[in-house]
């Protein structure tokens, strides 16, 4: 089992445990804000299951029908997670409205808040682990899960503070107000997650900082060539695709041009990790005098 798959499976276990704790906190208190927190945890479970399925599918090797691999399955998981977040937010808004019309004081607030705080701490720790692993493994599914959990941590912390304020002050409308604010924060989180995932499905280029590093590396390693132009990049899960045209002197032998290409490819793979590189070699008459000039 790969590291990404192990983490995705761990997310399912953590999500189920946190859901149980938050549901218990709501059952003890009757707080609509804690109910909203628990409803989001149901989405966490569904999202963790989707991420696990996507990570397992994306790890499958290329085949006849998918010669470029299955890495984009992770983006579909992230889009689905974003959609589930939006559904959870709408459910929470409905519960908030009902509680606003019929407010009541939470029961056993100290016990319920202690349980909710424990669940929030578990989510925070797991979110931190997923962020570290997701960046290292360049896994959209793990990073999406980490962002979702981080959003849950922020809203849960606000809910704990707010329900505590309701118990201390007796201001009943604070409970549904906090639930509504939680829903709005979740809506923003879901929109941002879907935006980033759709970008991956639409083959967006790598971020500008990384593109500049790629350009500099090509310029440095292409000694003997004249220029590189029409540089294009994209991400597909943990794989980076790089392609460009490399202009060489017209009288250069094929073996020499091939050696330059090998040198560039080795350097790019050393920097980017899992990479698919396509280099089209052209004679100097094809130079555009733009793009990447060779040092």
Please describe what this structure looks like:
There is one protein chain. With 295 residues, the chain is α+β, with helices and mostly antiparallel strands. The protein has 2 domains: 3-201, Alpha-lytic protease prodomain-like (Up-down Bundle); 208-293, Cation efflux protein, cytoplasmic domain (Alpha-Beta Plaits). It is built from 8 helices and 4 strands, in the order H-H-H-H-H-H-H-E-E-H-E-E. Strands 3-2-1-4 form a 4-stranded mixed beta sheet, covered by helices on one side. Helix 3 (73-101) runs parallel beside helix 5, helix 5 runs antiparallel to helix 6 and helix 7 (208-221) runs antiparallel to helix 8. The radius of gyration is 25 Å and the shape is elongated. 43% of the residues are buried. The mean pLDDT is 81. Belongs to the cation diffusion facilitator (CDF) transporter (TC 2.A.4) family. It is found in: Membrane. Keywords: Membrane, Transmembrane, Transmembrane helix, Transport.
Low-confidence stretches: none
Top-tier CATH class of the largest domain: Mainly Alpha
Any guess at the CATH architecture of the largest domain?
Up-down Bundle
Query: What do we call the CATH topology of the largest domain?
Result: Alpha-lytic protease prodomain-like
* Strand arrangement in the largest pleated sheet: 3-2-1-4
Number of E-type strands? 4
Largest β-sheet summary: 4 strands, mixed
pLDDT averaged over residues = 81
Give the number of helices: 8
Q: Quote the distance from N terminus to C terminus.
A: 44 Å
Subcellular location: Membrane
GO biological process, one term: intracellular zinc ion homeostasis
Main location: membrane
Pfam families: Cation_efflux (PF01545), ZT_dimer (PF16916)
